From TrEMBL:
It comes from Microbacterium proteolyticum. The lineage of its organism: Bacteria, Bacillati, Actinomycetota, Actinomycetes, Micrococcales. Pfam families: Glyco_hydro_76 (PF03663). It comes from the Bacteria. GO terms for biological process: carbohydrate metabolic process. InterPro entries: 6-hairpin_glycosidase_sf, Glyco_hydro_76, MUG_Protein. This is Putative alpha-1,6-mannanase (GH76 family).
Amino acid sequence: MDATSPAQARAMAAESAVVRRYVHRYGPVAWAHAATPGVAGSRTWHYWWHAHLFHVFHDAEQHRPDPRRKRLQRALHRGVTVRTLGRWTTPFYDDVAWMTLALQHHDLNDRRIDRLVRRLDEAVDPTVGALPWAVGSALYNAPANGPAAIALAWSARRGSAVDLDAWVAAVLHDPTTGLVRDGVENGAVRPELWTYNQGVAIGSALALAGGAPDAGAQEAHEARAASLVHAVARWCDADGGLFPSAGGGDGGLFAGILARYLAEAAVWFADHEANDEHRAVSRTARDLVHRNADALWRGRRAGLFAADPRRAARGTGEDLDLSVQLGAWITLEADVAVAGLVTS
């Protein structure tokens, strides 16, 4: 795509603002602060926010190659090594899954990937058939099992990915909405519906469709992804297609994650030119991404995006969180990915 297109220009502005406000260099290393100066806890270092920072840098590099960005990526990579004392892991399996995905997109030859994938696979509880949220946790949730399924599908452990994806579909499916509920804890389903859980469910279905052993398996995974795209559209329809807001903090990333995987669905289903149903899925996914990107851009003030696309950005509170600005940037890069699609 033309690097001067409107979608590219918007994504470039979001990237520049995140780097300028939040990313700090310390000699050969770099990392991002959690919020702008003056906010309580602004210098906190968040492992999983950095996973998404890595991931969106990859998206930007795919859309607008730049050697300066690559140098900054290397400095951030060294920063994670320093902050984790070389381990590149945490006790939270959802965080490890997100970081594994980021590294897989950054460099499939990174020697850390095999170790992280093995850690995820070995942590699956055979009595439950799923990955706990964290070491010793009784919570088995979509934010851990969704990204882990994608990461495992990208590795040589496809069987485990199929099992995790099937567990999410069987246990966390909400029959009323067709969406994915949050998780199960001590036998009780947590019914909350979050945007990012829908995103990773779409992503895991597409990852498995991509490596399916036969046409039947591929069609089944595609059908799962398509059903989720349409369920998200129904969920958001009453609000003009805008995603529910989850506020600041970790929630600032949720909608951006959904946008990323909707963009993947838009691209995937657009490739099936002779299939009217697939083109409809692609069009629905693309329109959801574009509506939310447009709303975020309209609400931009002084280079900041709002945690909620229904309002203008503010110079105080949750809008100063790195996660919120990072989530908006992810959405705008997703919009770049779908901007050139023809799905009608």
